[in-house]
UniProtKB/TrEMBL annotation:
Keyword flag Repeat: yes
Residues annotated as domain NACHT: 160-294
Protein name (record): NLR family member X1 isoform X2
Gene Ontology terms, MF aspect: ATP binding
Xref: Pfam families: NACHT
Source domain of life: Eukaryota
Assigned keywords, A-Z: ATP-binding, Leucine-rich repeat, Nucleotide-binding, Repeat
Source organism of the structure: Enhydra lutris kenyoni (northern sea otter)
Length: 793
């Protein structure tokens, strides 16, 4: 949980800063809580779907159940202000959600992941070797809903502390968000006051002493006046501690002394320990969320109930999520209302195709077990089928997806290295992904996975980090293969993630040969000696003749130069491999990469390949697209937040190597689908100067037969619309163009001398667009074909 990291301290009260900040300044505080990725969305039809009474913007928090502890005008008003503040904070939409339309509200698309009650014995049981298998709910333990978390246990004992745990992407953050909003809108009458804490925020305070009352007052100023009443609230006071893995808790008396006074300053970790011990505010209720590796930090004697968040283990929940999100009225409208909204029939068609694919293609259902990937599927479909917001690329969708799951996450808070979880994944999962792309395979044995995870491990600390990664995040990237003939192997959760991680592995410079690793160490050593070369020469001059000194001095300069050449050759080799992958002749007559991606999500209509037929060669055409996209400034900035920085100099040198190879191979005449893939690479790269230089020799744009969807029109217009040289011919025959596509492609048409639009069924609406085109003062068109050429004879 990262909201505390970005929340301005002034918002928490005058104890830290003076004036309150504006709502816009508070938005970063809400990004993680509002985000549907890490949990995906709350309650529903009958159990899984709940529609707020209007969206959070139109509804007002209510206090249906004011209890005896907070009676009185001032206390009631304080609680009501607290409800309104929480409702506002937790209802904010992050930027990535605004792509779904200006009136989109998460309140209307909540689908709860499955919560399975577990026991301490299960937690002590050794996990599976790779921790990839999903355990289905145990018989006799039905799934829990949010309203049942604090019900008495099987023995009738009162439950005061509940620990919910789940791997990355299963739904912890959204469950917390849902519970807070439910309380704000009066749907949790059992609690009169709810106080959420981010453990990341508390850990950032270090060991600086502060009392529980200070921590509450600094974050929720409206509660200052009722702090003395907290102790009397008993079980009707609920503390929510989100992301416990960020805190280092010590329950030993020698490490954390007993403290029962909420007004006594202590280290934040000590306050949390005493709350959980039930030594401070012993009657209060506590909800804890954490990753599996940190569950054991709380002794089981202090926990009344454990709940494992199992994601969307029921495909009906997946279908419900897709139906609610893809059927939003604004789902087909571009940013700011631009573009043409998708019709209800088009949205229903998408949902129907996706549902059929979930039923027939079990691997995508296995991927959507994680609610995070359900969001990624919806975001990808929206990118492919709706007008694209300016600057949004496929790479940026995947990079934002990872940021909203991993930003601020360290692998293990108890490890002094403070290693970023995403950086560890890039090194291990990226290696596996790249080896798969290099050997053209997507199925991996257990030995393959173990080899990449355990490569180079030597110390106990490194093995401990691997153990944490296996338990908390490995299932996010890899899934057991459920396809016939490949049982017992593993695949990346979605195929495009393999290509993204392989590209990330390369652009981060993690792929190094032995010569490079040794050369770098030698170069650094020689460089340190060279810094004080006068001292070295002064010593050696006493031992060697003067004519030997120039030789020694040149040797000191040669080693770093040789290493630089080795690195340069490596970059050229990577660029060569990327360009060859982009222009493979075997892929010349398959669909373009955007259609391939849509087919992988929605399924392929028509007969399927017989299981006994030899498998087709794997295609990795997204790999070069992601490489270009990751070198863009926008994605590099986001990667830096993930702990995976790409230096500007490295990005420039990689771009130069790619441009050199593209200049040689990019001049050849390409089939229409491959030409579109080439343009899509430039679109992902988002560098107009680079694209203008590489595409300066392009004179004919032949995309005949390519289905020109809104995103493809945007790609072509963005890459070629700003060019200066004329295009001899633009052929868009049989492209299923519509008037909106014509309007998007107007900048490209203005550069064309010959324009072919045959067999597109444009209709009368296109007449005004073509009239504006032909009357434009920059129009260069001399030939316009709108109808098929009549056959001779």
């Amino acid at each position: 949980m990262r909201w505390g990291r970005y929340l301005p301290r002034a918002l928490w009260g005058s104890g830290l800063r003076g004036a309150l900040q504006s709502a816009d300044e508070r938005i970063p505080f809400l990004i993680h809580w509002s985000w549907p990725l890490k949990g995906k969305l709350p309650l529903g039809l009958p159990r899984a779907f709940v529609r707020h009474r209007g969206s959070s913007a139109g509804s007002s928090p209510t206090s249906r159940s004011r209890g005896k502890f907070f009676q009185g005008i001032s206390a009631s008003e304080a609680v009501e202000r607290h409800r309104r503040n929480l409702a506002e904070w937790f209802s904010r939409l992050p930027r990535e959600e605004r792509q779904f339309g200006p009136t989109f509200a998460l309140d209307t698309v909540h689908v709860d992941p499955v919560i399975r009650e577990s026991t301490p014995d299960e937690l002590l049981r050794p996990p599976a070797q790779l921790a990839l298998e999903h355990q289905h709910p145990t018989a006799g333990l039905p799934p829990l809903s949010l309203s049942q978390l604090f019900d008495p246990d099987a023995c009738g004992r009162r439950v005061q502390t509940v620990v919910l745990y789940g791997t990355v992407g299963t739904g912890k953050s959204t469950l917390v968000r849902k519970m807070v909003l439910d309380w704000c809108y009066g749907r949790l009458p059992a609690f009169e006051l709810l106080v959420p804490f981010s453990c990341e925020d508390l850990s950032s305070l270090g060991s600086a002493p502060a009392s529980l009352c200070q921590l509450v007052a600094q974050r929720y100023t409206s509660l200052k006046e009722i702090l003395p009443l907290m102790a009397a609230a008993g079980s009707r006071l609920l503390f929510v501690l989100h992301g416990l893995e960020r805190l280092n808790l010590d329950f030993r008396l020698a490490g954390t002394g007993l403290c029962s006074d909420p007004e006594k300053p202590e280290a934040p970790a000590a306050i949390i320990v005493n709350l959980l011990r039930k030594y401070m505010l012993p009657e209060a209720s506590i909800l804890v969320t954490t990753r599996p590796s940190a569950v054991g930090r709380i002794p089981s004697k202090y926990v009344g109930r454990y709940g494992e968040i199992c994601g969307f283990s029921d495909t009906n929940l997946q279908k419900l999520y897709f139906q609610l999100r893809l059927n939003q009225p604004d789902c087909g409208t571009g940013a700011g209302g631009a573009g043409i909204s998708a019709t209800l029939a088009q949205r229903d068609s998408l949902v129907e195709m996706l549902s059929r694919n979930l039923e027939g293609h079990h691997q995508i259902a296995a991927a959507c077990f994680l609610p995070s990937y359900c969001w990624l599927v919806c975001a990808t479909l929206h990118f492919l089928h709706a007008p694209t917001p300016p600057g949004q690329t496929l790479t940026s969708i995947y990079t934002s997806f990872l940021r909203l799951n991993f930003s601020g996450e360290t692998l293990d808070s108890t490890d002094p290295s403070n290693l970023s979880l995403m950086a560890y994944a890039a090194r291990t999962m990226g290696k596996l992904a790249y080896e798969g792309v290099s050997s053209r395979k997507t199925y991996f044995s257990e030995d393959d996975v173990r080899g990449c995870l355990e490569a180079g491990l030597n110390t106990e600390g490194e093995f401990q980090l691997l153990h944490v990664f296996r338990r908390d995040a490995l299932r996010f990237f890899l899934a057991p293969c459920v396809e016939p003939g490949h049982r017992g192997t593993f695949v990346f959760t979605v195929p495009a993630m393999q290509e993204y991680l392989a590209a990330l592995y390369i652009v981060l410079g993690l792929r190094k040969t032995t010569l490079q690793r040794v050369g770098k160490e030698v170069a650094e050593l020689v460089g340190r000696v060279g810094e004080d070369v006068s001292l070295v020469l002064g010593i050696v001059a006493k031992l060697l003749p003067l004519r030997a000194l120039p030789l020694l001095f040149n040797l000191l300069k040669v080693v770093p130069r040789v290493f630089g050449r080795v690195v340069g050759k490596s970059r050229e080799a990577v660029a060569q491999a990327m360009v060859l992958e982009m222009f493979r002749e075997e892929d010349y007559y398959n669909d373009d990469v955007l259609d391939q991606m849509g087919a992988s999500i929605l399924g392929v209509e028509g007969p399927r390949r017989h299981p006994d037929e030899p498998p087709e060669d794997e295609v990795f055409e997204l790999f070069p697209m992601f490489m270009g996209g990751l070198l863009s400034a926008q994605n590099r900035a986001v990667l830096a937040q993930l702990g995976c920085p790409i230096k500007t100099l490295d990005a420039l040198e990689n771009a130069q190597a790619i441009k050199k190879k593209l200049g040689k191979l990019g001049r050849q005449v390409l089939p229409p689908s491959e030409l579109l893939d080439h343009l899509f690479f430039h679109y992902e790269f988002q560098n107009q100067r680079f694209s203008a230089e590489v595409l300066s020799s392009l004179r004919q744009l032949n995309l005949a037969g390519v289905r020109m969807t809104p995103v493809k029109c945007t790609v072509v217009a963005a890459v070629l619309g700003s060019g200066r040289h004329a295009l001899d011919e633009v052929n868009l025959a049989s492209c299923q163009l519509d008037p909106a596509g014509l309007h998007t492609l107007m900048p490209v048409f203005l550069r064309a001398r010959k324009l072919g639009l045959q067999l597109n069924s444009l209709g009368p609406e296109a007449c005004s667009v073509l009239r504006d085109l032909l009357l434009h003062d920059q129009c260069q068109i001399t030939t316009l074909r709108m109808f098929p050429v009549a056959s001779q004879g």
